[in-house]
Write a structure and sequence with these properties.
- This protein is of the alpha/beta class and 291 residues long.
- It has 2 domains: 215 residues, P-loop containing nucleotide triphosphate hydrolases (Rossmann fold); 71 residues, 2-Layer Sandwich (Alpha-Beta Plaits), CATH 3.30.70.
- It starts with a strand and ends with a helix.
- Bound molecules: adenosine-5'-triphosphate (ATP).
- The site of adenosine-5'-triphosphate (ATP) has 12 residues, from strand 2 and helix 1.
Length: 291
């Protein structure tokens, strides 16, 4: 059974498109990234999965259960971290977390204290005295305290300093070892690259691609830098070159195709220097976004 199975999921806010006909599935136990620029539809997809808003058409199942009809059952085994967390400021962290925990059968006080401790969160403090980053940590503990088998995280690391991000990622990896499935949205490519097994790239409400992180890195994309002899004044066109940038005698581009063909084309130009690198994921993604 899939942890998440999304079929032709569509959400319009009256006439405004949120997401349209999106399809993907997440395997049990995987860490799945959902990446796209602002306004791409990430939060819309997540809020639909959680049944905070209704699909306009299409649907989805979470561990075989329908997101609209069986939302109560689904809530028991999902942990959710919203992109922004709001709390009653007057409460102590401890009281808030214990109150939230009571809604779940599997709540265990020692367990939530352990997570809070690993994130260096003082549960005796009042929420109003916490920094943004510490409030985020409260949200993280809240999402984890009932040992959910699926974690849905909407831009989870915003506001966390790099060390905290590190401990947060360690917790996620630990959870994955225990069999938890993690679905998280982000527009930070670095963290997706570090954490995820697979990633769906979303833009303008549609999924552009679902790929294994490894495969994304090993696509035939190459980043090519060349410098030409200074007396070379003709225009230079290379078949298969994308995102071409020229600066005097220097030129750089992304190349997607056969290495042999690239070398054959380049052989006819007066090259002074050449460097071929693997592009960063960022560059590969930018290419998808620009399409
Ligand atoms: N409540 C709403 N009413 C009307 N339009 C909305 C609403 N929520 C989102 N939208 C629109 O739906 C589209 C997708 O937005 P969404 O918030 O899902 O994107 P996102 O990828 O989560 O972006 P971000 O990274 O900025 O949170 C955008 O065009 C947005 O303006």
């Amino acid at each position: 059974m899939k942890a998440i199975e999304v079929t032709n999921l569509t959400k319009y806010y009256r006439k405004v498109k949120g997401i349209e006909n999106i399809n993907f599935s997440v395997d049990e136990g995987e860490i799945f990234g959902f990446i796209g620029p602002n306004g791409a539809g990430k939060s819309t997809a997540i809020r639909t999965l959680l049944n905070f808003i209704y699909p306009t058409s299409g649907g989805a199942q979470i561990f075989g259960k329908d997101i609209v009809k069986e939302t109560k059952e689904i809530r028991e085994f999902i942990g959710y971290l919203p992109s922004e967390v709001h709390y009653y400021d007057d409460m102590k962290v401890k009281d808030l977390l214990e109150y939230s925990g009571k809604f779940y059968k599997s709540f265990d006080k020692d367990y939530y204290k352990k997570i809070a401790h690993s994130l260096d969160l003082n549960i005796e403090r009042k929420i109003e005295d916490l920094s943004f980053g510490n409030r985020k940590k409260v949200g993280i503990v809240q999402a984890l305290l009932h040992k959910p088998k699926l974690l849905i995280l909407d831009e989870p690391t915003g506001g966390l300093d790099p060390l905290m991000q590190q401990s947060f990622f360690e917790i996620l990896k630990e959870k994955q070892k225990e069999g938890t499935t993690v679905f998280f949205s982000s527009h930070y490519l670095g963290e997706v690259q570090k954490m995820c097994d697979r990633v769906a790239i979303i833009k303008d409400g549609s999924i552009l691609k679902v790929e294994r992180i490894e495969d994304l890195r090993s696509t035939q994309f190459r980043k090519v830098y060349i410098s030409l002899a200074s007396d070379y004044k003709q225009d230079l066109t290379i078949n298969g070159a994308m995102d071409v940038k020229e600066d005097g005698e220097q030129m750089q581009f992304l190349y997607n195709g056969e290495a042999r063909e690239l070398v054959q084309q380049l052989a006819s130009f007066p090259l002074r220097d050449i460097r071929i690198e693997e592009p960063s994921l960022e560059e590969i993604f930018m290419h998808y976004y620009e399409k």
